[in-house]
Amino acid sequence: MFTVPNLKLKINKIIGSILVAILSVGYYLGLSFDIQGVRYDKSSVLTYCFYDSTYKLGKNEFIGKNETYNIHLAKNEYEACQIAVRSKMNSTHRKYTIEFSQFVNENGDVLPSEVFEEKYIACVSDKNYGTFPDALVKYAPAPFSLSPQQNKVFYIQVHAGKDTPAGTYKATITARSSGHDNDKVQFIAEVTATVWNFELPDTPSCETAFGLSKYNIVNAYYANNDPELAQALYEQYYEYLVNRKISPYNLPVDILSDEADAYMSDPRVTSLIIPYYSDDATLVAAYNKVQSNPEWAKKGYFYPIDEPSSLEDYGRYNAIVERLDRLCPGFKMVTPFYQASIKEGGKTYHATELQSASKIVCPLTSCFNNKTFLEQIDKRRADGSKIWWYVCCSPQGSYCNIFTHWEGIKGRLLLWQQKQFNVQGLLYWDTTYWKDVVSPWGDALTTPWTGNDTFGDGSLLYPGQDGPVASLRLEEIADGIEDYEYLTIAEELFGRDYINNKIAKVTNTLTDYTLDDSLLAKVRVEIGNDINNAMSGN
Hints:
Elements: H1 6-29, E1 33-35, E2 38-40, E3 46-52, E4 68-75, E5 77-87, E6 91-100, E7 103-104, E8 110-111, E9 113-123, E10 130-138, E11 144-146, E12 151-160, E13 167-178, E14 185-199, E15 207-210, H2 214-220, H3 227-243, H4 260-265, E16 272-273, H5 280-291, H6 294-299, E17 300-301, H7 311-327, E18 341-344, E19 347-350, H8 351-354, E20 360-361, H9 371-382, E21 386-391, H10 409-420, E22 425-428, E23 461-464, E24 467-470, H11 472-494, H12 496-504, E25 507-509, E26 512-513, H13 517-535
Parallel strand pairs: 4-14, 15-22, 16-17, 20-21, 21-22
Antiparallel strand pairs: 1-2, 3-5, 5-12, 6-11, 6-13, 7-8, 9-10, 9-12, 13-14, 18-19, 23-24, 25-26
Helix pairs in contact: 10-11, 11-12, 11-13
């Protein structure tokens, strides 16, 4: 049984509040303190701490003292860490600047990197959860002040290309005070990045199917009357997701157009919807085009009905199947469902049997917490069906999901659990569902009709001034997809028992898993080192 390590953090918050008070008094009295080997005195106002990328630091949470960090990544991968900055006393009258250098190795090679400032988003309902870090806004260096007992958190992301030399890259973070302190250095921190000598493939092993609403994007930018801008915006958002190896449902262009060919051939794209046209001739034309190319045929599927939950719903499902059987023989279809079985008229109907025509079986993740259902899934694997799963406004409780107010590690662990249950793909209903809030920047309850505990549901991106702004939750999922790749490579190299043992270190069941961010990071590094050694012949 995994325990929750955050009790220590809660204790640290209490201790931290006491320390802040002591340090503030000491500052004005000209005193010095040694706390855990770190010198706090009048000459140093700012303090900092590094964190794993999944940890969500509260706006007022007392920070620790991890003074350095080593990011590990393969070639063709993104990876990140966080640094939090905090003033040891009331310093709203002071201004500070923070500079981030490039990551450079001993030969002068540069590892591309970006720095984002984390914006806190309100998660307010009748339960009043407060604010949580989520939006990742590209950092523009400028003087800033710090309110007492509040944190400023930065997200440092590196990207190793396929041709990036393996090895260690170093960067420095320099904080200075300005104004009357005359550009005085507050601290210099060092962060390193270790690039392993193996690469992740362009085409991820984890198939994805994520919603991307052109309607919501266009409305957010008031582009309803500007078709060229609307198209450019959707293409920009589409590319943003694909670049993080997440495949949106719909292509940016008509699937029957010549322009669609390049999108369908993109190796980063693992799936795409074939529109379910009402006109038979158009439907057949689209299907035949996709089938004409074996690469496209692997990716193309129909998605004409969602979450059937009654025999009446399955009546409509069967009518769709009859039409597709007649017009598009050999078709693939996905039909997400959240009930493993349906009980009507004193009988029990298994969803997997009702969906025998759906060659992509896509249940809610929580369905896998059922022995009978797992047996049904094994039958579907045997008949050659793909197995995907999905999350949305549910499951909640102890299950992993990607809500704004939940621990970030849950989003990344979702992909470890996916490999644990031999699930091939992840479906998510929307990334830009902003229509039910004035602005996602000010209100995280993007789906108020689902209840009070669904903050951020359907909204993994923010409408930025210059295009899409990622959320911590999107990055958690994207990083999890890359972790899934590590597990896939390791399984090929070392066997299933190896990855089962590694997965068991962080998750036992769908509801029993670690919340220790550092443990997850440690196990990931273990796997990466083992792959690197095997690839290097060590």
